[in-house]
Backbone:
């Protein structure tokens, strides 16, 4: 049992002063109410910590390596993909585990309480399966253990190199499975989660995209989902929209909504290329739009129509995707600024009585928990204790309270510096702004990066 007290906390009913929270040994909140006396660990401002709903952990290792132009004068996303495939060659299970542990640690230090890992790097360097086809999944589970982060593992089915069912080539072969192999891999991954994961870890399934998965693959993946979440990349790039339209006769979002019973179990990643009609249709399904504003900015994907989607009652959450920069508060700010730049507006996602930062944060909490299939995202009895505490007694937050403190953390640009403590499923993994295993995880990561550098 842990007893935490805080001077202010964001509760389901709104901001409360002087609260006391009891966290059971099962990692769940047992009670949340008025403070009786200050706990030894008294906190300043306490928030539920959102789940990071979209990550490809290994891509953290190429952060900063893809910012030059390639030989193609029309340097695009596709050049970025080539760089990624070249780099993939050096990634074996040990290195993937070390990189993932680093990424997960950075997420916790940034204020995320859990992660949904969209995991598609399954096989060895030439595309041959490991003896245990779920070996790489096991390493993601092990990395989450080292970091203490709650994990929703999403093994990815990746069949083809495009809508024309061209075979996977080069680095892509490490991702590929037919539906039968994938079913075995998924069962193996589920066993690793149960045997070696935290009690609060979960498994879902991820058909990669409409470009990479055919009708049979979709059916096979959905059959494995059970009551777990289903994630899929959708409508990220103009070229993808054109390709899907050419082969399937409809734009990606329209095609998916016309052909599958998309509901609250689904999380559709990006959706930066939607017509207004598609946006309101998607909002009505109850699915989560998985937004990754920093990566989408980095890749030049386009701007999600957050004003229309949230205005229509749509659900959304935040992911760090390529992990080029892991920064919860910056993701939220980037999402809002994209709307302002497009519409030449201010406070684009605020509504009457709810500030921009508060609406962004509430949206990310609810959407993240839903997308991760995780009973979290609120400080209430029964929910997992995914919590983040901020110090307000500093030159950045200037002792502000409530929505004003949240707005300042997001828009002032120093939210991450204010993070003092983070709990994931009751595990108190960040203390005084620093992850408890930072030295060990960093040392291993730096050694792996040096090895990869030498190899390149
Ligand atoms: Zn992605």
Residues:
């Amino acid at each position: 049992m842990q007893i935490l007290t805080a001077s202010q906390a964001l509760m389901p009913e709104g901001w409360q002063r002087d609260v006391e929270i009891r966290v059971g040994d099962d990692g769940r909140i047992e009670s949340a109410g008025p403070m009786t006396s200050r706990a030894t660990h008294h906190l300043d401002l306490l928030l539920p910590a959102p789940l990071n709903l979209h990550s490809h952990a290994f891509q953290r290792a190429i952060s900063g390596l893809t910012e030059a132009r390639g030989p193609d004068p029309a340097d695009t996303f596709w050049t970025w993909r080539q760089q990624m495939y070249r780099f993939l060659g050096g990634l074996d299970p040990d290195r993937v585990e070390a990189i993932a542990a680093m990424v997960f640690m950075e997420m916790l230090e940034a204020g995320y309480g859990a992660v949904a890992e969209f995991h598609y790097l399954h096989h060895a360097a030439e595309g041959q399966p490991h003896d245990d086809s779920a070996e790489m999944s096991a390493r993601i589970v092990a990395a989450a253990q080292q970091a203490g982060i709650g994990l929703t593992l999403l093994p990815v089915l990746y069949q083809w190199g495009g809508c024309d069912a061209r075979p996977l080539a080069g680095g892509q072969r490490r991702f590929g499975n037919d539906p039968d192999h994938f079913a075995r891999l998924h069962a193996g991954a589920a066993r690793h989660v149960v045997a070696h994961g935290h009690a609060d870890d979960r498994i879902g399934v991820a058909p990669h995209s409409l470009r990479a998965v055919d009708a049979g693959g979709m059916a096979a993946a959905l059959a494995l989902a059970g009551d777990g979440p289903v994630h899929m990349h959708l409508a990220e790039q103009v070229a993808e929209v054109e390709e899907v339209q050419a082969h399937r006769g409809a734009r990606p979002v329209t095609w998916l909504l016309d052909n599958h019973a998309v509901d609250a179990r689904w999380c559709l990643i990006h959706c930066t290329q939607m017509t207004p009609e598609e946006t309101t249709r998607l909002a009505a399904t109850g699915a989560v739009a998985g937004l990754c504003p920093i990566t989408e900015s980095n890749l030049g994907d386009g701007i999600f129509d957050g004003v229309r989607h949230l205005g229509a009652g749509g659900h959304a959450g935040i992911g760090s995707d390529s992990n080029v920069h892991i920064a919860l508060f910056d993701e939220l700010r980037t999402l809002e600024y994209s709307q302002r730049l497009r519409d030449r507006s201010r406070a684009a996602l605020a509504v009457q009585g709810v500030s921009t930062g508060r609406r962004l944060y509430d949206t990310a909490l609810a959407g993240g928990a839903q997308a991760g299939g995780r009973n979290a995202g609120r400080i209430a009895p029964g929910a997992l204790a995914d919590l983040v505490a901020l110090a307000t007694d500093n030159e950045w937050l200037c002792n502000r309270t409530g929505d004003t403190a949240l707005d300042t953390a997001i828009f002032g640009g120093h939210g991450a510096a204010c993070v003092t403590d983070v709990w994931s499923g009751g595990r108190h993994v960040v203390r005084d702004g620093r992850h408890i295993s930072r030295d060990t995880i960093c040392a291993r990561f730096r050694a792996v990066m040096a090895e990869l550098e030498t190899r390149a």
